[in-house]
């Protein structure tokens, strides 16, 4: 339309980025991108949707748009999100389509009142926003006798879902790219790497990213010279073309020249049934290494000890990944409003606890010194 302009060049909404590594940015999402997210949606007119994401996050806007365009029913509540509220609303309103971050899935699986009968109405459980651990998907699927978990990967900057695993792809993958979505994996020099080789995921969506509101420098930095968007995510393509995400590039940990990601330890920790949630970070050591530390929420009624965790990790992960920075139990892990772990805040908490622990240890050693 000559009067209104081209929808791909006109902002339809300004949506907050996740803010996991700093303050959220205002992302200009085009009108065309917003319509695209509804066109590729699996939501049907007969669906009843539930999602607790606020309207300033992409998932909240996505739920609103797709439910309107599909003519579906959307459940809206002012109740604070909790596993008890989620289960009650799903059962009461016969919810067929539920969208959540992995943290909510983990909380649901730890609820003693979860059952097949309470989730029998669910047709699609769409999960995304951060890395979805395969073991969580396996456990949740045992309760979804009439549906299954779909894993979604997207970026606010892209204005759309990038890939979807619809349950028939390997659980460790986020599936294949949606139509007209371009992806490539590159090394630190910007060169495309082969399959099963880790690198940064770069994306070129069907419609251009319109930039961060009022932040031209940040906008410039997110693109490469050919207009590809840097996702900041590390991953690789499997042999069949599925995208497998490893972790965030900024979250990489280094211990004595060994490079690894927090998720490599988290994947092993969540095998322990008594762990409800965990977030791993690195504590800066004097030699420049990152000492891995874990902040852990125990399952309800659990007597899990630090020794239990150390014993579980022995023989399952390499020596340089052992939790030298400590194991710390907490009632909750800091998260963004979109349900992602705030690793920066977790690192501050663990660093403080580590220093307190080291200080107490030094005091004990001092009292054992005989002065002459």
TrEMBL record:
MF terms (GO), sorted A to Z: long-chain fatty acid-CoA ligase activity
BP GO annotations: fatty-acyl-CoA biosynthetic process
Primary localization: other
Domain AMP-binding enzyme C-terminal: residue ranges: 264-340
UniProt entry keywords in alphabetical sequence: Peroxisome
Domain AMP-dependent synthetase/ligase: 13-213
One Pfam family linked to the record: AMP-binding_C
InterPro entries per UniProt: AMP-bd_C (IPR025110), AMP-bd_C_sf (IPR045851), AMP-binding_CS (IPR020845), AMP-dep_synth/lig_dom (IPR000873), ANL_N_sf (IPR042099)
Classification via SUPFAM superfamilies: Acetyl-CoA synthetase-like
A single Gene Ontology CC term: peroxisome
Localization terms from the record: Peroxisome
Protein family per UniProt: Belongs to the ATP-dependent AMP-binding enzyme family.
Name assigned to this protein: Acyl-coa synthetase
């Amino acid at each position: 339309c000559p009067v209104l302009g081209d929808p791909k060049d006109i902002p339809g909404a300004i949506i907050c980025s996740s803010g996991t590594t700093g303050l959220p940015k205002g992302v200009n999402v085009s009108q065309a991108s917003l319509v695209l997210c509804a066109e590729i949606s699996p939501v049907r007119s007969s669906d009843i949707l539930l999602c607790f994401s606020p309207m300033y996050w992409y998932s909240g806007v996505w739920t609103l748009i797709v439910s309107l365009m599909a003519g579906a029913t959307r459940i809206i509540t002012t109740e604070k999100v909790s596993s008890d509220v989620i289960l009650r609303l799903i059962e009461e309103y016969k919810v067929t389509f539920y969208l959540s971050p992995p943290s909510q899935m983990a909380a649901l699986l730890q609820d003693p009142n979860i059952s097949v009968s309470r989730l029998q109405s669910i047709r699609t459980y769409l999960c995304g926003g951060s890395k979805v651990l395969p073991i969580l998907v396996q456990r949740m699927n045992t309760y979804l006798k009439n549906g299954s978990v779909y894993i979604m990967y997207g970026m606010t900057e892209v204005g759309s879902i990038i890939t979807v695993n619809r349950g028939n792809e390997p659980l460790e993958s986020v599936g294949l790219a949606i139509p007209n979505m371009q992806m490539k994996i590159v090394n630190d020099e910007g060169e495309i790497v082969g399959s099963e080789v880790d690198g940064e995921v770069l994306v070129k969506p069907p419609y251009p990213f319109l930039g961060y509101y009022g932040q031209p420098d940040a906008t410039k930095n997110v693109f490469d010279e050919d207009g590809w968007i840097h996702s900041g995510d590390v991953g690789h393509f499997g042999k069949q073309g599925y995208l497998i995400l490893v972790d965030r590039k900024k979250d990489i940990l280094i211990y004595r020249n060994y490079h690894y990601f927090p998720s490599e330890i988290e994947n092993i920790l969540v095998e322990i049934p008594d762990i409800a949630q965990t977030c791993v970070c690195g504590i800066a050591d004097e030699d420049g290494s990152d000492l891995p530390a874990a902040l852990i929420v125990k399952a309800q009624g659990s007597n899990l000890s630090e020794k239990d965790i150390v014993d579980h990790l022995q023989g399952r992960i390499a020596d340089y990944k052992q939790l030298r920075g400590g194991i710390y139990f907490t009632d909750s892990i800091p998260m963004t409003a979109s349900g992602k772990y705030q690793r920066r805040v977790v690192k501050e908490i663990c660093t403080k606890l580590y220093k307190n622990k080291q200080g107490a240890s030094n005091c004990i050693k001092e009292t054992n010194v005989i002065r002459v």
